[in-house]
Design a protein that fits this description.
Blueprint lengths: L1 H8 L10 E9 L7 H9 L9 H7 L5 H13 L10 E6 L1 E3 L1 H6 L7 E3 H6 L7 H10 L3 E7 L5 H9 L3 H8 L28 H20 L5 E2 L11 H6 L4 E3 L3 E5 L5 E5 L11 E3 L3 E2 L9 H14 L4 E4 L11 H21 L4 E2 L2 H8 L7
Length: about 375
Amino acid sequence: MHNIKRDLSNLLGWRTNKKIVVIESDDWGSIRMPSISSFEKLKDKGLDLISLDAGRYNQNDTLASKNDLEGLFDILSSIKDRNGNNCVFTAVSVVANPDFERIKNSDFQKYFYEPFTETLKKYEGREGSFELWKEGIERRIFVPQMHGREHLNVIAWMRALQNGDRQTRLAFNEGVWGFVSDKNTLPNTDFQAAFLFSEPWELGYHESVINEGLDLFEKLFGYRAEYFVPPNGAFNNHLNHILRKNGIKFRSASKIQFEPFSNGKTKKVFHWLGQKEENGIRYITRNCFFEPSQLGKEWVDSCLNDIAIAFRWHKPAIVSSHRVNYIGGLNMKNRNNGLTQLKRLLQTIQENWPDVLFLTTPELGKLIQPNFHER
């Protein structure tokens, strides 16, 4: 049944005879869980930190250290494609985090954010890690693209803080927002889904988040982002024109997108690889998955199977693999496991398909639409 679903999901969209592998890794730059101490304190106070898929993030995911990045870069640089290019991560990144101190000093009446490079300075072992980000860009081994200004639904979070929601305030005191909120007090709330909204006016705020975030991306990295992946997937397609105006050429979406509207309503929208939206943005859809921090599954074999199916249908293999898989700041075993399995995955790809090409997502997008030009 799994293979039948994968076959069907690869039917529509752009095709190629080339064996292309793109690895998209989300969440770089976001805080998630600051420390083991914060995790234990919040768990003891009754916050749900381990339910569903959120548990692996809260127990393992935090800002990347120099050691995390060095370990990842060593593996990526050790694997070459047919043209001699190393494997590369499209590092889908946020560029800011909440400035907790300024928010608290405003008595929770105003939201402030800081560039993630400022956040890094506050975390032991991360102070100089941005130099490795820049090295990764120069070596075309770790190439950031846009995930959002922050991985946070600012309006929903600030509303909960202003209303004195107990769990939200407790988490705030530890520098955390990414927990599963109490559905009795905060129904239909997902603090991680930056572009969910409950009132139509919030779309205007989302426009400002996109504008400011993409400008900050250019300031930090020295180039405009071309690819955008909405945090947690939720995104109203009306905002595509703001993305396009800011230089975004390609956007990630699920093959079946539940487009959010106000008051919790959604609309089912179908997408396929290379689909062109009316303002010119092309959709990129993932078809392979590699999440070794999610235990209980043989991820190398599963991902290799996904890739084989993609190639059988003459599709590029677009692999989803989140930052959490490669982080050791909270749990060293997590990083060791993720890097070991990544190396085995990449080595087997190289052996099974010696004519493989490793591309970033924008490089793939330009193959799909080679004559793309600015409007």
